[in-house]
Amino acid sequence: MKIKPGWDVDVVRRIRQRFPDTPLMADANSAYTLADAPLLKQLDEFKLTMIEQPLAHDDIIDHAQLQAQLETPICLDECIRTAHHAEQAIRLKAGRIVNIKLGRVGGFGEAKRLHDVCQAAGIPVWCGGMLEAGIGRAHNIALATLPNFTLPGDVSASKRYWKRDIIVPEVETTPRGTIALTDAPGFGYEIDHDFLRHATVREEAAGAGQ
How far apart are the C-alpha atoms of 6 and 45, rounded to whole Å? Predict the structure, then answer.
């Protein structure tokens, strides 16, 4: 669930009362400052899986100070853009979980390095989404198969966001909320070229002689 000042403790309390045994996490999207530590401390009673990115997107040090005051694990998201950032955060004990987004870290190479750094330190990771269409979503699925992705990811069925996706078959979830892997070559899906042409409003070509 998303939280922000004025929409946090009471909301989480009501949800926890309604779902006493369901794993819950709160995503703050940098809505708080270190001065809000006493307020965020109140969330400890609800046994959340994590509080994601409560402080500024580029502030590892304040997250370390906040984590020292909380029982609830902090998940670092926007402030982890490279494996080196993860190494710094781990040394400072700035969080106990890391969200890895392919788009945020610049691709598979850095994502794999980041994954490995966290795995070596015993820091679990999970795959975050950025409202990708099918091609990007397929890459998220592949990323999430790495062994240290031990928490539920933010990868969902195509129909959650799109009336029609640009890949075939579209991504679907099983009744258990999982996504079945495909053995197809490449990124695992075919591009729906007919629909892509239908949805195209502008086309540019780049290459030799252009």
Answer: 18
Backbone torsions φ then ψ of 91, nearest 5 degrees: -65, -35
The domain spans of the chain are 9-158
Which amino acid appears at position 175 of this protein?
A: P
Which residue among 93, 101, 112, 163 is the active-site one?
101
Whole-angstrom distance, CA of residue 72 vs CA of residue 46 = 9
What fold does the segment set 9-158 form as a domain? TIM Barrel (3.20.20)
Catalytic option among 2, 47, 93, 159:
2
For residue 1, what pLDDT band results from cuts at 50, 70 and 90?
Answer: very high
Q: How far apart are CA 47 and CA 32, in angstroms?
A: 20
Q: What is the pLDDT of residue 53?
A: 98
- pLDDT tens-place string over residues 39-66: 999 999 999 999 999 999 999 999 999 9
Q: Does the active-site annotation cover 2?
A: yes
Residues 6+ apart with CB under 8 A from 126: 75, 97, 99, 100, 144, 149, 150, 151, 152, 153, 154
